[in-house]
Write a structure and sequence with these properties.
Elements: E1 3-8, H1 22-40, H2 47-50, E2 52-63, E3 72-82, E4 87-94, E5 100-112, H3 123-127, H4 150-153, E6 163-166, H5 180-190, H6 193-196, E7 203-208, E8 217-225, E9 228-235, E10 241-248
Antiparallel strand pairs: 1-3, 2-5, 2-7, 3-4, 4-5, 6-8, 7-10, 8-9, 9-10
């Protein structure tokens, strides 16, 4: 089953360039993914009944063309393959001329909403989403894990964080963790200005490792590796890895 919805690219989904932002793209993709779960019976409003919630593990996004404020876009999504403990979901975005402007893949795991324990994803649950296992935007069976750059893995190097933030009340979502889009927001703040200003930053990936909770202090470290820009987020108290975000110019 392929879900399809049309959206207006409004002011909250563009940046200073007047074109859709990376954040805006994730926002639209997230909206339609939640709608699909609502229809399947495992959405946010059904948590009280099912005691189940989906946790995002990865994003992989490639922007082919950016559309302007006020444009209409058609967004499509579908469930893909799944294993015992994770499932994949892909996305496409088309402009008003039906030109493909963005593709993305995401990876999710199922969690007990009462205690946060990762659960097995049963065939019965997956079937409610009417998956399209053969349709893959990147032609890949999985999303590869991001690796922390070596210079940041070695604590003896004493790398100084380039940005430090404290998770605020506004950042926390229904799962009591910092909402997934805010990881991208804070990563953008941590980028060097010349990278942030580069409008050709049209490929990025996010790997969520450990959820950031309200009040957590987070260190952001930066590394450039062969044209790829990494932001690594770690808990400031115990150095636990929270997330890795990779931007490709």
């Amino acid at each position: 089953m392929i879900m399809e919805r049309q959206y207006m690219v409004d002011v909250q989904n563009v940046d200073a360039s007047n074109f859709i932002s990376n954040r805006g793209i994730l926002n639209l993709f997230e909206n339609i993914a939640c709608l699909h779960s609502d229809i399947a019976g495992y959405g946010m409003n059904q948590i009280e009944k099912t005691h189940l919630t989906w946790i995002l593990l990865n994003w992989k996004v490639r922007i082919l063309k950016r559309v302007m404020y006020g444009s209409k876009v058609t967004v499509k999504t579908w469930a893909r393959t799944s294993s015992t403990f994770f499932t994949l979901r892909d996305f496409e975005m088309y402009d008003e001329n039906n030109e493909l402007v963005c593709i993305a893949s995401s990876k999710w795991t199922l969690v007990d909403a009462t205690n946060g324990r990762i659960l097995r994803i049963t065939p019965e649950i997956i079937e409610t989403y009417s998956p399209e296992p053969e349709k893959s935007v990147f032609g890949e069976d999985d999303i590869a894990k991001l690796k922390e750059p070596e210079e940041l893995r070695n604590s003896e190097n004493a790398i100084t964080p380039v940005y430090i933030f404290t998770a605020q009340r506004r950042d926390i979502d229904i799962n009591k963790h910092m909402h997934n889009i805010y990881y991208l927001d804070y990563a953008m703040e941590a980028l060097p200005q010349e990278v942030y200003d580069d409008l050709n930053c049209n490929e990025f990936e996010i790997m969520y490792k450990s959820g950031i909770k309200f009040g957590n202090n987070v260190n952001c470290f930066y590394s450039k590796q062969e044209g790829e820009h990494f932001i690594v987020m770690k808990n400031a108290d115990d150095d636990k890895l929270n997330a890795i975000i990779k931007f490709k110019i």
